[in-house]
User: What shape does this take?
Amino acid sequence: MFKFLKGVVAGSGTGLKDLPYNIGDPYPSAWGSWSHFRGTSKDDGSPVSIFSLTGSNPQDGHLAAGRNGVRRLRTVRHPNILSFLHSTEVESFDGPSPKVTIYIVTEPVMPLSEKIKELGLEGTQRDEYYAWGLHQVAKAVSFLNNDCKLVHGNVCMSSVVVTQTLDWKLHAFDVLSEFDGANATATGPMLQYEWLVGLQYKPMELAKSDWATIRKSPPWAIDSWGLGCLIYEIFFGTKLGKTEDLRNTASIPKSLLPDYQRLLSSMPSRRLNTSKLIENSEYFQNKLVDTIHFMEILSLKDSVEKDTFFRKLPNLAEQLPRPIVLKKLLPLLASALEFGSAAAPALTALLKMGSWLSPEEFSLKVLPTIVKLFASNDRAVRVALLQHIDQYGESLSAQVVDEQVYPHVATGFADTSAFLRELTLKSMLILAPKLSQRTLSGSLLKYLSKLQVDEEPAIRTNTTILLGNIASYLNEGTRKRVLINAFTVRALRDTFSPARGAGVMALCATSSYYDMTEIATRILPNIVVLIIDPDSDVRSKAFQAVDQFLQIVKQYNEKSNAGDTADAGSLGISSMPGNAGLLGWAMSSLTLKGKASDQAPVATANSVTPATITTSTSSPGLIETPSTAPVHRVSSSTDFTDQPMPPSPTSTDGWGEIENGIHEEHDSDKDGWDDIEPLDEPKPSPALANIQAAQKRPVSQPKPQASTSLRPKSTVKVAKDEDDDLWGSIAAPAPKSASKPLNVKAAVAVDDDDPWAAIAAPPPTTKAKPLSAGRGRGSKAAAPRLGAQRINRTSSTGM
Assistant: This one.
């Protein structure tokens, strides 16, 4: 029973071997007879501090005081009092008499005197840090005296330690006792272990052991004197030698001197209460104290106060002591952002403070908070993260980007805000190199496919630029399937002139990825038509591109003629002249005036819709665009009517329906480009190919020529795999008579599986028997014509 009670009072462990901590190197100084060691946890290696006190026999007075300190430290909790973790008492036999050692494990701290030497602060920054430290110690002393009615009894520099976040904390509770001033009959000593206190730290009444006067004095009288001793020691940088030295005030700041003198009053009843010192002292009113105090009570502030504070914080942080900012303010700011009490502007301050850290410290202290912020639903936070991604993006590991960051960033591709969609798009320039091929092919390219037909012209343009910049990170199969289709079928045919210019430059920047067949049959034919583009900038880029690709073909031809075919197929120039490096962003969608409808196609080539754009100069290889870029749309019935269109793997401009989710790397039928496949072999011109195909098919019997108009193509559903109709371009044109159009119901009845329905001759509008039911009579047979003819077949639905 006695052993059990002793364990409860003396410690929370059973012995040194059971102590779950490793004892490390000692510090050169500690309070009283205690020794202070560095330590680590055996479980996770986290740092701790270990204090030990050894007595020659179990009845040693130092051990009794030490046990009192352990008990008090375990039960008294306050933010400015050292945090207790564990304790144990060990008995060892070394010689004839046993030795008893008490161990206390606390949070990792360092003696105040050692930390002051390590920081080496001077001038205003030193005074601000001392003010913050004294403010914390004064709050701890006030808590003990005013709230707990306890007397510490030995406040000095040795009883103060500093945490890893540079907070000052009070410890050394060996002398701590209750204040029993209300007990008039008490005659013995109030402080049982006051003999441990050095004579130089004792006020006159304690030195004389005048307990009657002490009991009549306020509870803070003894500790206010000790706080005055602490102020003397930190400003003079030495331990107090004798009580008379306290009269020397040469190093005491003038704003603190009146309070210092009141703390050391010779009359105990007139000594300054530490709570009044905290509230009224002019010395504690400085930028550092105010900033840390605001951060600590941030949750109590309203949104206006927070926004104002965080907008000033980046500039304010430069004026504060750098070690305090990095070790105290930065963790507070990161925690506030992580738990949602800080506003979005706080991210700017966090990144600025983080820029003062080493790369290793930045990865440990800042990046975890940033990664967690990507999961925030606050749009302002997401915008701030994307706007500053260039400051931390390179520090993110590929695994973190692929698994934790990208899934949250990708939600911005479909955001209703054009500004957020554009920021998300531009962030991929930094994040894409860290994405896996599975994510690139299965997810990112789908979003880019959708953005290339976005309603905002600037987003369409910058999507093309991004594709050109990240082409090197795609595998060869994906590049073959995506690049040419994205740049020619969409970008070069965009109604927005800078988008067409971006497509030309992207083709040039990725020229090394195309073989000679693709250049000759798919790239050059599409670029050549742009040399007569209504926009002068597009024409200029088109001429440069034609020269570049012709040069590649010429080099290939020369090598082929010389018999050097090994390198002939791998020719390519990385970029256009004057466009070395990455393609620069063309513009920002925020500067566009008007909606997407402003850039809609118009009827004639002379119709122009102006759109204001802003040219970026932040990166090499800039796509230069005029400040007012007209949007030209050339009607298909004017300049390009007689120009043969280059062969394309599809007759549509779509890449297919975009699908969410992650698919396999080679899931090519669901990445947005599935309906546009590259050509394996060169094809003849469209006209020649259509004629040859038509000649191979049997021609059906002539049909009566109807004088009615053809039904619109849009009313006929055509299967996706047969939308590339070889006959469409040479089918007989519709008569230009003004007959009444067909009834809509006739179009609905067309067999959906009939690939020829879209170009079949319409039924006559007369009351004669429909052709689908039998051949007409009494009608003159029309002359055979070139093109697809509808074959007579029996249909259950009719026309």
